Amino acid sequence: MKKLTSIIALAISMGATDTISAQTPQKGRQQNPFTLVYEGAITKNEKGKVNIHPVKYKLNGIDIAANVYTPANYDASKKYPAVAVAHPNGGIKEQTAGLYAQRLAEAGYISIAADAAYQGASGGEPRHTDKPANRIEDIHGMADFITQYAGVDANRLGVLGICGGGGYTLKAVQSDKRFKAVATLSMFNSGEVRRNGFQNSQLSTIQERLKQASDSRQQEAIGGKMIYAGVASITDEEIAKTKTDLYREGFEYYYRSHAHPNSTFLYTMSSLLDLMTWDAATNMDLINQPLLMIAGSKADTKYMTDEAFQKATNAKNKELFLIDGATHIQTYWKPEYVSKAVNKLLEFYKANL
């Protein structure tokens, strides 16, 4: 029980997990040639159907690995609207970001899901660096690449940020007006949670954790061992005893049902120096694009969407859309909730792109 308590405390205060357990089933990944782990994933490219195109491009000297999805009967000589999809914290392009990108392509959009720099299949050292500036730059970088992709109408570019990717998306679009329509799904304010703890549960340890991050930075500076924040591989029993929906269902999603070796949930402890002084919900008045924020009605993370939404005072046609009965993680994969989110996204992008 003591081990479980320490695992959950660290997860709540820092919002990270560790390497994939040996118990994790990998059947879906092994069967899919693109290592996609979501239901209904593309298994092969066929003429006349939605296709997937693994690509790589440079962003500030770093190799970024991404998947571009093209609509059925894609014709490079025509012009299509496009959507960039930013993945959750610890997530990668083969999980829920890929699912939503594929569903958007099925509706006629060229879409891109890219692994964040320093994470997944993208380059960058040290591995698992997780700094807001990098994640925001990743979103700018997706715009750089996809607006030059054959067939993309650069004037009809939208963005979808999921979980932590949603928080970084809110910040990216404050300045990047190439994005003409902005949507988030189950938005997670990484800075607020790293600083205050999940649901403000770690307010009393902020200075202690800042000191820990500072010490880690110093250890790196003198060439010492890299220290990572995270949770060790977790047992089924420990998952079952986790009280918060976000972390219990998150452990199940990332360690079991949708596991992928590139999705490790590690991040450098020194990243907290940047994360804990950052907040996704600042300067929300700079967003003047149409804004759609989607959250599950039962999500224990909904308070973050609520906080950011009310601050978006200059957003055009802003809307908060709740998926009745859904928790945070269920919006990643559960068919009925994914369909509701996708239908709303399509209505939104059709009206604004």
TrEMBL record:
Database matches in InterPro entries: AB_hydrolase_fold, Polyketide_trans_af380, Xaa-Pro-like_dom
Transmembrane spans: none
Keywords assigned by UniProt, alphabetized: Hydrolase
Residues making up the signal peptide according to the UniProt record: none
Gene Ontology MF: a single term: hydrolase activity
SUPFAM superfamilies noted in UniProt: alpha/beta-Hydrolases (SSF53474)
Domain Xaa-Pro dipeptidyl-peptidase-like positions: 61-321
Domain of life: Bacteria
Protein name per the record: Alpha/beta hydrolase
Organism this protein belongs to: Pedobacter ginsengisoli
